[in-house]
Specification:
Two copies of one chain form a homodimer.
Chain A (H helix, E strand, L loop, with lengths): L1 E4 L5 H18 L6 H12 L6 H9 L7 H13 L4 E3 L7 E3 L6 E5 L5 E7 L1 H6 L7 E14 H5 L13 H5 L11
Parallel strand pairs in A: 4-6
Antiparallel strand pairs in A: 1-5, 2-3, 4-5
Helix pairs in contact in A: 1-2, 2-3, 2-4, 3-4
Chain A binds a DNA duplex through helix 4.
DNA sequence: TATCAGGTGATAATGATTATCATCCGTATG
DNA sequence: CATACGGATGATAATCATTATCACCTGATA
């Protein structure tokens, strides 16, 4: 199997296509099309850093200053519910959302919390057959690779830290041992 | 590849062995051996349901009523840091911990949040070669299978709900679509 | 246009986790 | 064994993401 980092450049056209059909998808799901929803999906599709609700809210407010953070939270959950977004529940931080619906996985820097999309060719096919565990009906699956990004590795972990992740260094420590292994 | 549910019966001897060497492992990590730590690792190893901090605290308090919930939180993080436990950050609930260090994965019921250990023979080997993403130094990885457990599927989702997971039904809805796919 | 179900904004509430700090205790040393 | 030190602990407050509440608004439909 081969791992490939997904390039951001691919996403512009993808986002445009998704936006073009989003209103129809809402209607298909029986949901009213509101300007807030349009703005929120646009912000999500425009981001490539798996933003949290607060970041999306900030982006949305550039054009719609009145939008409530609660609405952003609610709408992101709604988007997940109808399959227009995915929640990335990484390292027990605040929730991060991903508008990219293509099959892919995530590499997460345990220090700066940067998330990078990766594709692992062949993995979907290889796992497809084992998704039926006895006693469970499988709905989906996700692979998360914990890692130290080059910036953090070389600069002692200070690079790329978001101002929000105050406790990142301490939290990152819990992944310092056990180089390989699954949770 | 073949998926196999890990049986609880295996854990009794495993827990005993882990307890036997735990004090030494603390000393090796430069940590004092305290009764609280002993009680907390014992509670974690004695549980097979990936308990949250609060549940472990309740169990510990049966013998040590004075133990603080904050200590349980701190200690569990410490255990993760020295590689004696793992945090299962599933579906953005409160943190769940796992004392089983054997390579394995998790099937999570999106409704009742029950977590089940599974082994996927061959997956470790198959993925071993791709754990080097450009720009990242891989530390480990985890595979989580979202699923609906048979109890929830047959009883309309009421079975097995913990009293704590009040919002589980609503949250579970976000996984109702997109039967297969990775995050 | 009239109606209504659902959406939204503002705000309070919730709940897990973390910070703080005075005190305690495991460990190493004499 | 006595002492000293540094980390651990308990109690409690603070933080912060998320959710609940509720009055009001608005997109969808007839």
């Amino acid at each position: 199997m081969k791992l490939k980092v997904v390039k951001d450049s691919r996403r512009a056209g993808y986002a445009r296509a998704r936006m073009a059909e989003f209103a129809d998808r809402c209607r298909a799901a029986g949901l009213p099309v509101t300007p807030q929803r349009m703005a929120i999906i646009a912000a999500l599709l425009g981001a490539n850093d798996h933003p949290r609700a607060e970041a999306i809210c900030a982006e949305v407010r550039r054009r719609h200053p009145h939008v409530s953070l609660a609405t952003v939270h609610r709408t992101l959950e709604t988007l997940c519910r109808i399959g227009e977004a995915r929640k990335v529940t990484t390292l027990h931080d605040s929730a991060r959302y991903d508008g990219n619906l293509e099959p892919h996985h995530h590499v997460v820097c345990v220090r700066c919390r940067r998330i990078c999309d990766v594709e692992i060719a062949g993995l979907e096919d290889a796992l497809g057959g084992v998704l039926t565990a006895p006693g469970f009906r499988a709905l989906g699956w996700s692979l998360e690779i914990r890692a130290l990004c080059d910036d953090c590795a070389s600069s002692g972990g200070r690079a790329g830290r978001s101002p929000k992740s105050r406790g990142a260094d301490r939290r990152a420590a819990q992944f310092a041992t056990k180089p390989t292994g699954s949770d």
